Amino acid sequence: MSGRLYLGNLAPQTTAADLEALFEEHSLPLRYSPLVRKGFAFVDCQDNDTALRALHLFSGKVKLHGVVLYLEHSVQRRLRLRKIQVWNIPSSIRWEELTNKLSQYGTVIKCEKVDFENDVALVVNVTYATKDEAARALGSINSDTEEGQDEMAHFIASYIPDDAPLEQGDEKRSNRLRQLRTLERKEISICPLRLLVPSKLLGALIGKEGATIRAITKETQTRIDIARQDSNILNDKAMTIRSTLEGCTKACRQILQLLRKEAEKTGLGDVDLKMLVHNSFVGHLIGKAGRNLKAVEEESGAKVVISRRHDVSLYLPERTFIVEGDVNESCCAVSLLHKHIRDISEQNAEAASMECCLLPGLNLTMSGIFPCPQDFNFARRVQHPETVRLQIPAQAVGALIGRKGRHIQQLARFSGAVIRIAPVSEEDAEERTVVIVGPPEAQFKAQGIIFRKMKEESFFLPREEVNLQVSIDIPAEAAGRVIGRGGRTVGELQNLTNAEVLVPRDQIPDEQGNIIVNIKGHFFASQMAQRKILEMLAQLRYCWNVPRLRRQREQRDEGAEREQREQREQREQSEQ
After folding, report:
1. Of 32, 268, 316, 560, which one's alpha carbon is 20 to 30 angstroms from that of 203?
2. What is the distance between the alpha carbons of residues 160 and 51, in angstroms, rounded to a whole number?
3. For 187-352, CATH number?
4. Measured between alpha carbons, how far is 4 from 42 in angstroms, rounded to an integer?
5. Spatial separation of the C-alpha atoms in residues 491 and 531, rounded to whole Å
6. Per-residue pLDDT tens over the stretch 449-476
7. What is the pLDDT of residues 42-57, one digit of tens each?
8. What is the topology classification, in CATH, of domain 376-541?
9. Which run of H or E residues covers position 322?
């Protein structure tokens, strides 16, 4: 054992200095400073004997800030198997009596005394036959300590590391559980079920303080996310259900039953089940001459109607499947469709990436935004990290960050860019700044997902383009080249990209000698304008470097000629 102890039941105001002083007061040296967390801490004693003395002196006997401390060995969960350590045993107890008491909880395979410099109490290590018997013994000994029953009230027990292999049955069971958890996580991560819920019925679905939706997620073992939506034009809100196929089907059934029950109370009429499906799956679900869809309708007894193709846009690449029928028929149809989507996802991972795929089928080279990779000179000049500041609505910050920062972390991982939210400059600011640092392709992915997120969360109207302002830094000396004579260059740039490009006048360069260029437009217009401006800067840097390189070459040639002349003069002098 390493001598590390776990301290529980700590008062909130406990600090590392308090624990150090406590151990120093009892002459218990520590190797490192205690690691204190809210309500517990970890302490590294100098050796195992020091840890045993601390357990004997402190556990259940010493108060810190008015709270009794609880100590035990710090053991990893995977090593908490069949071995426990029992201390605080009176030295007057006979060995046969001790082994009999410990055998009450199971078969004791081994019971050995630990060398401990204490004449009053004993410490023993006990190995039970199975993991369950060790857990039962540990719980019983510590509960008897709290209740104060007979001689066992003196005993205190804790797990110690057990490196011995599990029994064959336990090992097979643990391996099977590990495999099932891996498969379940893999299944949950594949294609969540997305539904459309009427906005008027959303309050009943969520319940008071989220009680109803929390009960559904707990019963069906699912995770349900509801998209934010500030626009009053759309009548539905998107809901994402993540779980296994069976879990999604159970949650869908409960949600549909609740919605139809609430619709009858409020007089809204029948509520059909609406399923959102990525456009890349629609052809597979319909099948040749509609065979797959007809098979789903025949097996479930429900009728499935698909929204029109031209409703799909760059920012909303999903189509709506309206399922008409009773609860059982509708849920059966949704389950069959969802199963088909998952099967397609496993066969073709590229077609399945609904959340990670930025723009399906887009070729960045053919779009003209990025040049052909064979252009080595361009790649050498441009493929360095760029810093872009993107302005988004202040209300959208929470949606972009996600719960506990999950969405922005996934965005950074997928795009390969560094993304952070700049601090608020004004209290009532209507916009916030997102700082994105990364090479051009990382910028393209990160900005594209942010543009799409603004549309999905309905911070823009359904038929409205997402126009966000992007700011980039350019050298103050290059401002004239970007603007051009009489604004000709920036005018041509706006006509070519359909973006609004503004170089504010009378700017004071920052410490690095840069000024700001603001670009506003939809995603493709903004990307094209950024690429054109940065390509222009790369050409300027190359042109600025040519005279410097020419001067360096001339100086190098002059130095070589001077050196040759000196060598020639030295040879002539030596010959004379």
Report:
1. 316
2. 12
3. 3.30.310.210
4. 7
5. 16
6. 899 888 888 788 777 788 899 999 888 8
7. 888 888 888 888 887 8
8. TATA-Binding Protein (3.30.310)
9. strand 318-324
